[in-house]
Design goal:
The complex is a heterodimer. By secondary structure, chain A is of the alpha/beta class. Helix content of chain A is about 40%, strand content about 15%. The chains are: A alpha/beta, B alpha/beta.
Amino acid sequence: MPAVPVYLDHNATTPLDPRVAEAMLPWLGGRHGNPSSVHSFGRAARAAVEQARQQVAELVGGSPPEVAFMASGTEANNAVLMSIFDDGAGGHLVISELEHPSIQRAADRLEKAGVEVTRLCPGADGVVGAAAVAAVLRPDTRLACLMLANNELGTLQPVAEAAEACRERGVALLCDAVQAAGKHAVDVSSLGVDYLVVAAHKFNGPVGAAALWVREGAGFEPLILGGGQERQRRAGTENVAALVGFGACAALASSELDHRIERMGSLRDGLEAGLAGIPDARLHCASSPRLPHTTHVAFPGLVGEELVVRLDLAGFAVSTGAACASGVVEPSRTLLAMGVSPEEAIASIRISLGTSNDEAEIDRFLPALAREVQALRSLSAEPVAAP
Amino acid sequence: MTRGRQTDVLWVRGSSDPLRASPRSGEPPLTAVAMSGGLDSSVAALLLQRHGAPVVGLSMLLWDRSQQVRHGRCCGSLDLGDARGVAEQIGLPHYTLRMDGEFRRHVVDPFVDSYVGGRTPSPCISCNTEIKFEAFWERARRLGAGRIATGHYARIRQDEEGRYELHTAVDESKDQSYFLFELTQEQLSRAVFPVGELTKVEVRELAREARLAVAEKGESMEICFVDQGVREFIEDERPELPRVPARVTTTAGEELGEGAPTYRYTVGQRRGLGVAAGRRLYVLDVQPEANRVVVGDRDELLAPGLVGRGLHWIAGEPPRDGAGIQVRIRSRHPGVAATVESGGANGGTGACRVHFREPQAGVAPGQAAVFYRGTQVLGGCWIEGALGAA
């Protein structure tokens, strides 16, 4: 095993940028204060949180008062769905099958409570067409959810076009941009959405900090009730250190975005060129519009989970798709929805690069991957002894 | 006990030393330790890790009823968290394998079928034969393992000719060799039982010294997937099963009345027969097709031997000398001297007859008869019925 394992699973989470850590440190020791307090300690904490809000607003092209901080992308997605449908009036919800479980499971619950849910399948290209969204909108549709980029495949979705169709019909659109932020331009004005969610830990910020951007004038009822924090949109004392980190990573992402896209894209191209040299490697959605750092590849006949474990034991961290808390892997719903066969879905792995990866790591990874694929293939070819 | 003993004694007799080089690569192979989250497999993992062998911890999700609280059972999903915790504590990579489909197919369904068919199953044997040393091995092998280790109390030796032998554990009160009688030479060649040379007290002491969170954990239950009673389990699993009361009769055909459905009886059972006869009665035979349960006195339960199938010799062939064999006809049976009469080796259905030196009570179809010579497990068979039974 290499002394230091190589991390190629940045869609699960990313390492904290040292510059972000540095910005957070004073708030993890030395400085403290509740942003709601009147005194100097509180005012300093408030100033830090408001600076972070400014930085996050700039990242998404919105204005600071439209940004409400939350603890996770999951919370923010849940909050929007519950805000709109919690009145018990039913109605119609449109989501894509590409959405994160925080939207899918929330939709499942709403469905049990009487909301009608339409789930749109992506095409084989991993994209849900804007026309498909427009086609299912109804007079009673209250919300549509379309993520900006998919976490498993990295494919970009036509959010701006879908939002336009929604706007014409008076339907609100929630855009989960958690996987896109920091790796792709996010601009609420050009997207034309009503709600947008980003989370710090997906682009070198800390876990525990996310933001819900709500278009001025769009309705929102809080999910978490209590104090009046976040302009009544999310009760609970602010996680000052994490939010300061969020602001810092947002500012860095804003200024370094083009460079990051170019750098990760060129690493990714090198990786995918190398993958082409492994027999039967099948890239998914490689010609779709997509994020610069995510590669999804199937090795038909193999079990992706086994490949992930073997690579882990060899010192390389990749995944089979969405991180699962139980550690038990099922075929990806996303791939099945795309029409990929269960066998091929199970045979897939996701390789997601980050800003700290370099060519040397990719050069070490490729032969290791080829070796493990070969080892699994030869095991599969051996007849299994009858019990 | 001293530190020295832990590592010196464990593999001193060599055959299952996880550090022994693989004949192919010349390097110690990766050992996959099956971690249930219980005390024994946790200490097995600890000992392997201390021994310096390359080790990976694997847990099997066998029976997922996550909505139910299940603890202290080897197949409960809560225990998988304990396994993960121990692996993390001792610095092992750890992964969970979903094997509930295999477990249902090879263990749970046959268990239920067996009861419904009037037999008394021994699911831990099928679990070892089909799951731990077959399906699990196959999965471990695909992850790069060359050997598998478990927390079984049993020992593996190699004779002068290189043949693998299975022996009882040092701690006789915890010995699990009965449940391993179906293992083959190939399976034994790649198996490691790190706690087989230790007593339970020593195992617990090791866990305490290492401050493992599972050090004070109790024993796992007899049948890990059955939480209430066996009867309730069967009725849960087969709700369509007609719950027709069985006719309870004596061997002479005397009708004693209606009892419970046949699947609620096992051979040798004395309590809860559901009929009163003014004397102590035992279940002699369960006949689902006739919807009848035959009961009788204790001496009617005695049999001079048994008829078996699936005869298996661990050495791959019958012993040259059949003398000195003791047979155990259930896991807690003390054993009786016996001779084994078979048509041939492990071919066909492996039909055989086992003759006891003294008659034994409670020869239950579905249980295993396991042959021992001293501490060595020679093999065994599955009980079809009592020899000379009506």
